[in-house]
Write a structure and sequence with these properties.
159 residues; alpha+beta; GMP Synthetase, Chain A, domain 3; 2 domains; 3-stranded mixed sheet; 3 helices; elongated
Length: 159
């Protein structure tokens, strides 16, 4: 159905010695449209001097990817159903735990989407739940993960 690519690039910093394990983890993610995103290890795994807290860590990127995919399907299904949305926001939360072998993994992802519907044709809470269910079922990222995912819609206005 499709093939996707990205480039991840890292280089040792001036004066850093790789074998001491005291090198900066900042790197770049390059995407085909020209976007470049700064990436780094998550705070808390390494001493502060080895990370760039302003960069996106892989765990955050996983959450953003899952939320983005869900949103895109949700918006498509809402439009197809004749509902108008002028704003959408999600604040997903992922929890890292250790699996049975003691390895860390993102065990749970809780999506917290909030869509602001406008116009005369506004969905009921049940219709919103159905749109989220359909979006989750169609989401390529959600279908690719073994993490437990929950959708906890927030009703009201998106910020």
């Amino acid at each position: 159905m499709g093939e996707y690519t990205a480039k991840v690039r890292w280089q040792i910093g001036e004066g850093e010695v790789f074998t001491t394990n005291r090198y900066n983890r900042r790197h770049e993610w390059h995407f085909d449209g020209g976007a470049v995103v700064a990436g780094c290890a998550a705070p808390g795994y390494l001493p502060p001097e080895l990370i760039d807290e302003s960069a996106v860590d892989p765990e955050e990127a996983l959450l953003a990817s899952a939320a983005s995919c869900h949103m895109l399907y949700f918006l498509a299904y809402a439009a197809k159903a004749g509902f108008s949305i002028d704003r959408y926001e999600d604040n997903p939360v992922g929890r890292v735990e250790k699996n049975e072998a003691g390895d860390p993994w993102v065990a749970t992802i809780a999506m917290r989407p909030c869509a602001t519907f406008v116009g005369d044709n506004r969905p009921s809470a049940d219709q919103i739940d159905d749109l989220h269910h359909r979006a989750h079922k169609s989401c390529i990222i959600a279908n690719s993960l073994k993490s437990e995912m929950t959708i906890e819609p927030v009703f009201g206005e998106a910020a």
